[in-house]
Amino acid sequence: MSVRKHRSQPYQIKGVDALFGELPLAEVAAEILPLSQIALPQQQPRRYFDPMAMQELVESIRQHGILQPILVRPLLDDKYELVAGERRYRAAVSAGLEEVPVVIRELTDNDALQLALLENLQREDLNPIEETEGILQLIALKLNTTSESAIALLNQAAHPKRNSVDNVIHSKDWQLVQEVFNTVGKFTPESFRTNRLPLLTLPDEVLAALRLGQIAYTKARAIAKVNDLGQRQALLESAIAENLSLTQIKQRVAQIIDCSTNQSDRSQSSSLKNRMDVTYRLAKKSKIWENPKKQKQIEKLLAELEKLFSQD
């Protein structure tokens, strides 16, 4: 089946011009392409799709078709790789469509991945983990570095006492970082570093629930304050099953921490008593009493103990 022209809404990703310069996607006419000729990319930024939201999109496509074309780039053997529009692609497959409107552009691997990330970051249903990882990956691609180096640069700019912050914020790399945040339009570098980077160090089970959209990131951060794995897992399951509010979660976290502290205090008290018993038995068997110099030390220690116990 050949590619043919198609009239649809113009293709547009907010911020494309800022990040890519001359890439007039909105000016490119859409074409019709068989779904069988479109392949998903090996590196896909999006991992989780809300089932309810996807079903709504499937029903919309069944009734109205795909209003905004999918962005693809040509491969070998008359095939095309999906660049942006994975939700629409998946929904079209579920809706039983045989062909979809597309915009075809020649793109490098780097540009294709950046466009895919940028479109995903503009979705309202993107979960906080994917959003955080997506922004870091976008920064890393712009700087031609790793996500770890991008994190290091963000931290560097926030600690002037340990690093030369002036050198960082006036560097070309930092200008590119600012461009990314200005394009995404949801965070400043500092708010992203403070509120989103900590999500990447959450315990595995909390991170998994957050990635699946089962819990809000504010609730996830509160639950992560529970150190005990069993207690944390139980609280996480309750928070999801009972749809606990952030206030309720914080109350339960406080109770768990308070209980753990009291148990620790009781354990420490019991340990001190045991040590006192052991010391007393050793003292009775010791020959220290025959040493005049050590007798004076014992007198001082006994006097301090007597004073301490009399204050109870």
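Next protein, fold it too.
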Amino acid sequence: MDLLESLKMAGTTLVANKLRSSLTMLGIIIGNASVIAMVGIGQGAQRLASEQFETLGPNLLFIVPGSQQTRSTTLNLPKTLVLADAKAIATQVPSIKEVAPQINSRLLVTYRNRNTNTAITGTTPEFLVVRNFDVARGRFITNLDLERNNQVVALGADVAEKLFGNSDPIGQTIRIKNASFQVIGVMEPKGAFLGDNQDDTAFIPLTTMANRLVGRTSPYGLELTFISATAKSQDSIGAAQFQIENLLRLRHKITDEDDFTVRTQKDVLKIVGTITGGLTVLLAAIAAISLLVGGIGVMNIMLVSVTERTQEIGLRKALGAQERDILIQFLIEAVILSAAGGIIGTALGISVIQIVAMVSPLKAGISPVAILVSVSISGGIGLFFGVVPARRAAKLDPIVALRSA
């Protein structure tokens, strides 16, 4: 019997048992759809993280207190960075363009009968350039504000809306931790970064933050939460990181473990990419289990089919069909079920990815590799799990088969 005839017979048999064939394919459909959707969503999460890091600012470096080991083993981070460190980086590191020191806290902000608990950032005028922020109305902090400890504040877009609604906040007075601040500006909307709303922030002069709100507790100078810096070019980021590390080691008189960590934008993005990539692989592996379950379902149904078609098999063998012909027919049926399930599952997975892309910020994309691998695996599963029932059918004795029918 030629292959074309086997294909026709397999198709006729499967169409004659539509419900059973559909239920057999269901596990394969769900498995393929899950794998493709999980891989697409995982890649979308990686793209979103990459885009959000790009909005932070060009050629960005973060200098944070505590060594990498310290930051991973304690919640109370050491306060080892001071304002003098930031000034030294700005003046003594030739590959650095701008430096923005920061003191961060979360405090109650009040205007008349409205209040909100929001992030307060004490910083300098360089923050706009380093962190790629823009002012929508009014102005930002100036060096004069720093020198005079002026109690002025630039509000993030969401904070301004919560406190003032549609009213103009410029010139109004708000209270931050029982201290009065005049609103001098409103920032352009920036959006969220890794779940942190950057528009839910109020910006005040760094010196005012230290002297009026959080206090000075370090004998070495004005303590900082961290320092942001931007390199002069993409090519100078590595040199900037090296120079900053050497400078701070000299300033802090370090001979053993560093009491600070310098991270580039690429370093942080690589960490996030490793995490999201690992989660994608984990989710895809879990989804692939349903492919295995679907393959077992194919084998079970094909074994039932062999039992039900004992008379047909005996009759065909009595008329001269070889074991190879019976084997090929049942293998073809198993592969058709798995391949058809794979194709339908692929279409379903692509639909899920498109829906997720429309209703969420994830830039979910369709992975041709995931589709090719998933469909190939589903077809291979049909072939693999179809061998046992196909061999059982091929080995049936025609006389016994006809007698037991």
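About the second fold: The CA atoms of residues 66 and 260 lie 4 Å apart.
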